[in-house]
Design a protein that fits this description.
It is built from 18 helices and two strands. By secondary structure, the chain is mostly helical. Strand 1 and strand 2 form a beta hairpin. Pfam families: PTR2 (PF00854).
């Protein structure tokens, strides 16, 4: 009951938080959806469509998270991989899966629409889960089982190319499914409500509540029940249950076809971004008007119906302003601008928003790299520690992530209801602290987490090597680093989500949400690079490398310290770019001298 109460509070905070960050997430569709509905005379699907949409999204996450949370253990036990190889597979797959939503969003918005994208992606997810389940079920699709002692010294038979091919095919199909479902499920759900009515606006807020409630439940179930089944009962059953649920979600989603509102694709935002750069390049030889002489020089038409707020002309990245300069042949006969030659001030300023955010976004990659270790080497540590609760029950190594989740679930309501009001009285800021300060605190916690991970790994290793006959130390010694990781996520990830959604124009929020996935993708690839460099550079002269399969013989603590140093440099980089950042919607600032920057406080 206590855990349930915690999660209910956490879910209510997610609703509060998301309603701020996604105040009008349907804004890109307000105009287009209205037109679509009026032309087809079809009312919004509303809550009648929600069981089908939420069911599909929930089961997709159940499948992918259920696999990801314990996949490192699966690769080491069933495919006889050493921890470096298993970490590489996990990081590369995670990177591909997190880049995929950006491609899925583009295909959906520009060509096929959200319904078709989700439908095809759901089938791909099912086929991927089925393939992975078959690798656990059919003996010929995995290498011969290997005793733990031989596995420790690397004497096991590696998987064949055919076996690896089947495994990677399954992972590839899962990535395709993730790329289609994740960027489309929230917008498709919002499409079912009319945001111009009070009932529709309330429905959108409730939709977010249910969305994050189901997401929280999925994490709880996968990190406890599913991981336990995989570890202690059967991998076939532990993978088969999510596979069957994924199949059921496809049937459920297709049953609601006639209920849904289907918004036609309106073209991708990426093309308009490219047009600004091309138009600015085409007009690179033009001179910008002098101060006070801009009137009538720039193309500034009325806002499109789906754009809710007008952005003022700024002088940061002023070379892009040339894309909005009107010349003799820039307009078509009907008054519309020629593509690739003329853009509006609004188009130019939207691209500037993206450019300003990129340095802040990049700082999240290294911070997320520290978090990514929860699913790789933290599991390796847990496997070497005493995981027993009582004489019979043993905690699955993949369930240790629950500690981070509980930290977030307990801390967020306290932060929202107690800390923010207290800070607000001091800082006079609506959120208590600025969004960039919140992200910076998260980056600092990533340093502390890696230092703690190194310290307690050294304690674990010393205990194992100095007292080889004694029982290993308790797995709960991993709690400090996992708790610090929870604080890192609470400040950094949620801070970035709110920051991106507030700093991007309303109709570019699909890109904003995709950036979070891209951060995880970048961190996965960076983690893989660091792991391989450390694996190949360290060791020698009779000594194993730091990340050898037997972590008691390696120096995993040194690896954590490397990540701590990287996080420290990243924190200094973040302080620099955050100081130079200019928030969206500030008053226009005229140039005073040569430098093309805006002068305002953070």
């Amino acid at each position: 009951m206590v855990v349930k109460s915690i999660k209910e509070k956490s879910s209510s905070f997610f609703l509060y938080f998301c309603s701020k960050g996604f105040k009008k997430p349907a804004s890109p569709q307000q105009g287009t959806k209205g037109n679509a509905v009026s032309s087809e005379q079809k009312p919004p699907g509303g809550w009648k469509a929600m069981p089908f949409i939420l069911g599909n999204e929930t089961f997709e996450r159940f499948a992918t998270i259920g696999l990801l949370s314990n996949f490192m253990v699966y690769l080491m036990k069933k495919f006889n991989m050493d921890q470096v190889s298993a970490s590489n597979v996990l990081n590369i797959w995670s990177g591909v899966s997190n880049f995929a939503p950006l491609i899925g969003a583009f295909i959906s918005d520009a060509y096929v629409g959200r319904f078709a994208t989700i439908a095809v992606a759901s089938v791909a997810s099912f086929l991927g889960m089925l393939t992975i389940t078959l690798t656990a079920w059919i003996p010929q699709l995995q290498p011969p089982q290997c005793p733990a002692e031989q596995q420790l010294h690397g004497h096991c038979i590696s998987p064949s190319k055919a076996q690896l091919g089947v495994l990677l095919t399954g992972l590839g199909l899962l990535s395709i499914g993730t790329g289609g479902i994740r960027p489309c499920s929230i917008p498709f759900g919002i499409d079912q409500f009319d945001p111009t009515t009070e009932e529709g606006a309330k429905g959108i807020n409730s939709f977010f509540n249910w969305y994050y409630t189901t997401f929280t439940l999925v994490i709880l179930l996968t990190l406890t029940l599913v991981v336990y089944i995989q570890d202690s009962v059967s991998w076939v059953l532990g993978l088969g249950i999510p596979t069957l649920l994924m199949a059921a979600s496809i049937v459920l989603f297709l049953i609601g076809t006639r209920i849904y509102v289907h918004v036609k694709p309106q073209g991708s935002i990426f093309s308009s971004i490219a047009q600004v750069f091309v138009a600015a390049y085409n007009k690179r030889h033009l001179k910008l008007p002098a101060e006070g002489q801009e009137f009538g020089v720039f193309y500034d038409p009325p806002l499109k119906e789906y754009v809710l707020s007008k952005l003022p002309l700024t002088y940061q990245f002023r070379f892009l302003n040339k894309a909005a300069i009107t010349t003799k042949n820039d307009l078509e006969d009907d008054g519309s601008p020629k593509k690739w030659w003329l853009c509006s001030i609004q188009d130019v300023e939207e691209v500037k928003c993206l450019i300003r955010i990129i340095p802040i976004w990049a700082s999240g990659i290294i911070s997320f790299t520290a978090m990514a270790q929860q699913g790789t080497f933290t599991l390796s540590q847990a496997l070497k520690m005493n995981r027993h609760l009582g004489p019979k029950f043993q905690i699955p190594a993949g369930s240790m992530g629950v500690i981070s989740m509980l930290t977030i679930g307990i801390f967020l309501p306290v932060y929202d209801r107690i800390m923010v009001p207290s800070l607000r009285k001091i800082t006079k800021h609506e959120g208590g602290i600025t969004l960039l300060q919140r992200i910076g605190i998260g980056n600092f916690f990533s340093i502390l987490a890696m230092v703690a991970a190194g310290v307690f790994e050294q304690k674990r290793r010393n205990s194992a090597t100095l007292h080889p006959g004694a029982a290993p130390i308790s797995v709960f010694w991993l709690s400090p680093q996992l708790i610090l990781m929870g604080f890192c996520e609470a400040f950094n990830i949620l801070g970035q989500i709110e920051f991106f959604n507030k700093q991007f124009p309303e109709h570019m929020r699909s890109i904003a949400n995709s950036l979070i996935f891209c951060s995880w993708a970048g961190s996965s690839y960076l983690s893989s690079i660091v792991v391989n460099v450390v694996h190949h550079v360290t060791g020698g002269h009779g000594h194993p490398d730091w990340l050898t399969n037997d972590i008691n013989a390696g120096r995993l603590d040194y690896f954590y310290y490397i990540l701590a140093v990287m996080s420290a440099f990243n924190f200094l980089y973040f302080l620099y770019v955050a100081h130079r950042y200019r928030y969206k919607g500030q008053a226009r600032i005229e140039p005073k001298s040569e430098p093309d920057v805006e002068l305002s406080s953070m």
